[in-house]
Structures are given as structure tokens and as C-alpha cells.
Amino acid sequence: MNKLDEQFLVVSNRLPLVVDQDEDGWQIKPASGGLVTALEPIMSRVNGLWIGWLGSSEQAPFDELFARFAATHGYRLAAVPLTDEDVELYYRGFANETLWPLFHDLLGRCHFDLTTWLHYQKVNDLFAEVVAEQADDGQLIWVHDYQLALVGHLLRQRGLKNRLAFYLHIPFPSFDLLRRLPWKKELLQGLLSYDLLGFQTLRDRRNFVACVREMFPHVRADIRRRVTLLDLGERQVSVGNFPISIDFEEFNQGAAVKEVEEAAWYLHEHYQGRQLLLGVDRLDYTKGIPDRFLAFERALEKYPELRRQATLIQVVVPSRTLVPDYQNLKETLDQIVGRINARFNEHGWVPIHYLYRSLDRTQLLAHYRSCEIALISPLRDGMNLVAKEYCAASVEEKGVLILSEFAGAAAQLGEHALLVNPYDIEGTADAIWQAYSMTEEERHQRMRQLRAEVRRNNVYRWVEQFLDAVQPRTEQLYWHCTEMRREGDE
Ligand code: GDG
Hints:
Blueprint: E1 8-14, E2 17-22, E3 25-30, H1 34-46, E4 49-53, H2 62-73, E5 76-80, H3 84-103, H4 114-134, E6 140-144, H5 151-157, E7 164-167, H6 175-178, H7 184-191, E8 196-199, H8 202-215, E9 220-222, E10 228-231, E11 236-241, H9 248-256, H10 258-270, E12 275-282, H11 289-302, E13 310-317, H12 324-344, E14 352-355, H13 361-370, E15 373-376, H14 385-393, E16 400-404, H15 410-413, E17 418-420, H16 425-436, H17 440-456, H18 459-468, H19 475-489
Parallel strand pairs: 1-4, 1-6, 4-5, 6-7, 7-8, 8-11, 12-13, 12-15, 13-14, 15-16, 16-17
Antiparallel strand pairs: 2-3, 9-10, 10-11
């Protein structure tokens, strides 16, 4: 294999795959999800390697499955073995009960526990060991997300000289929040071992730079450039914001196929000409689902015209089901939906249709295409790809996007969406009414602009911009990205 074809190594907590067994034996396929959608096309073009945890301890014949995967998908996989204890302390513990709530500004949900922090370091070290075994000189190593902040530092400790890049998919908090973390210094030092750090928004990037300046006053920051340069004396670190996106055409064309059109038509028939509001989220307290239900309830109270004329379809995809906070959230949602539906239900109209499961792709696209309003109101979100997917699939250009000002996506889509503060139940209720009563002309005009934005700043541009900021530049990777982006633009 051509050496140049192998110059990309991606590391993420989970490997992007689903393994299961049917009557034909073991099957392996790529998982769905933002990061996979974003990176798979470039990985297969440059024959990359993806390293991560298998996500379960199933005893599948992984050597054979990985070989089959590489042959069909054009890139290789390598697994980091984690024990149940690792998963409990590193993943469920420090990553999801400390960093996740802290970085989403939800301090009250944070647990600060020395045992989980020590285990976080141990598992990051395990990842670094596997990466060090697999990496070739000259390869760009791109580590993803908050579970693996220390991997770069641990690779440097092993003497690796490769270019190291890191991308944070979730927000980065202000110093006022980060200072609560007992191990903030170690965490920041870990991040400063990368050569390039990428954040979703300008606000995240500024928060990071401000935290570094507070904790390490000797670090000089040149903030005049498109990418901030942090001068640590012996070396420099680039810090940029690169908003992640989607493959616009995949959703645009996918939503236009006959099967989806029929499913969309059927969906509307079922709801008898009402306007449909749509929420699609993983079960997560950051997504603001209870507040959204309360805002919808308030809208029904305040604007009685909505009764029998509007239905909220809320899809909640089960997630982190073993973490107590998530189990409690599930119960809260069941209760609120039950209460609101019992209060308003009349003549066969049920205000909230709550689905606690994921939709298959055809159904997801049909929901995006046919729902008149998307109600996307996270309390805090790194980006929120559902907002972009909704616009890309809105092929009739009649959808209205209601979007939280605390979603990263608001920085790009805020001008033509209806922005809401999800903590403001009254304001969100008013936005629901505004969306419901919006003229067709205004809907078209706003949605056209939203779609143009997502089409232009698609996922290929995200990868291209990120790789463009890696110094020295990885010419071949960059070339592939530019090609892919051009094809996407056409
Ligand atoms: C993290 C950050 C950041 C959802 N329901 C179904 C379904 N989905 C797919 C969507 C979308 C993905 O899941 C969710 O992506 P989000 O961006 O909304 O949220 P997180 O999972 O929290 O992702 C986030 C992201 O990383 C990328 O950087 O934007 O802020 O938290 O792609 O389509 N897919 C199917 N059925 C469903 O029912 N098939």
C-alpha cells in the first residue's frame, strides 16, 4: 500500500460500527451518527485507520469482521480493549458525570470524584498505547472529543513526534465554570499537548483561550488570526473554531426519493392536516426536552387556536440508560407527557406524540420533510446536527426552524431561524405561535436561506477547514477534502 495513502489516523471513544448476529452469521456495519457521517467519506478515500473502543464486550470474531469491514468500507479499524470497570469509571463516571455536565454549564449535575479522574487518566493512557503501536511516522493523528482529552499528552510522553490534532464536539465552558474542576490544570495541560485544537464555535474557542490565560499567564496568545496561536515558549498551539456539519446532498436527495415522499404523505394523513412540530434528540438532560414540553403546554394555554390544530412529535433515542440521571429523566418525561396529554386531549387529538425509540432512516427523513416546525431547544449543545439535517431535508422549503440560542448551530443558523432561550418558557411558547402562524412566503424565504447556509458550509468544508489549519499541512488529505467539497458544491 502506498505510504501516502495511509496518513490519517482517527481516534474516538467508540469505533463507528454496529456488530450483530443474524441467520447469516456475524454482521458488521458503520454506525450512524454525526462523526461517522463526517469522517467516513474521507477515511475511505485515504485508506485511514480508526481506533476506538468496541462499545461492548461481545465475543464476536473481530479479526475477521475488521478485515471484512476494511475490504468493503476502504478503511481499517483497531480496538482498544476496555474492562467493565474501565467503562464504569472512565466513561460513565468521569466523562459523563463530570466533564459532560461541566462543559454543558450544568454544574449541579457534576460529580467530582478522585477515583473516576484517576481512571480517566488510566484509560486515556490505554488509548495512547494502542495509538502508539499503530501509528506510523508522519501520520496525522486526529483525536476526538471530551473522553480523550489527555491522549495527546500521553502520546508525547511516549516520544511520538506526529502532528496531533484534537476536536471537541461539545461546548467548552467559561473559566468561571472550569475553575470548579479540581483537575483543571492537568486537563488544560493535556489539551495544550496537541498541535491543533478545534472547537465548534467562536465562543468555545474564546472560552478555551481565556482559561489558558488564567491558568498559565506566561502563555502568549495571538488572537488576530483566523486561528489563534498560543505561544508556549518551546512550541506553538493553534486554536480554531470549525463548526461541524452534515452531508447536505445526502439529506436533500434522500428526502426527495419516492419512498420518503410516501412516508411523509402518510404521516400527514395520519395527523389529518394539522401542523406538526418535531423534536428529535438523544435522551439527555442537556437537550431541554422537559422545558420544551412545558413551552408547548404554555402555547396551548395561551393560544387556544393551537388546540386540535398542532401536534408535537417528540422522538427520544434511548441513551446512557445505566446512568441514574438519565433514568430519572426518562421518568420525568413520561410524567410530563402523561399530564399534558390528559389535560388537553380532546376529540381524538393528542397534543404530544412521544416515541421513545429511534426512527429508521426513511422515517427520520419523512419526519424532517413533513413536519412544519422543528422545535430544537437544547439548554446547551456543541452544534446540534438535527437542526442542519432538518433544513437539508426540507425540500419543499416550508419548514420553520425554532432553535435554542445555546446550540452551537445558532451561530450559523440564528439569523433565519426563530431563536429561543429554552429556559424562557413564555418566550418559547410565543415562538411556537409565531412559527405556527407564519406566512408561507416568510417560511420559504427563511428556509431558502437556511438551506443555502447548510449547503455551503457542509461537512466536507468542515474537514477541509480543519485539515487546512494543521501545520505543516497534510497535502494529500487536504487535496482529497477539497475535491470532495467541490463535488458537494456542484
Ligand atoms: C454530539 C454533540 C454535536 C437522532 N435520532 C435519530 C437519529 N439521530 C441522529 C441524527 C443526528 C445525530 O443522531 C444526533 O446528532 P446531534 O448533533 O444532534 O447530537 P449528539 O448525539 O449529542 O452529538 C452535538 C455532535 O456531537 C457532532 O459534533 O453536534 O452537539 O452533543 O445525526 O440524525 N438517526 C436515526 N434515527 C433517529 O431516530 N436514524
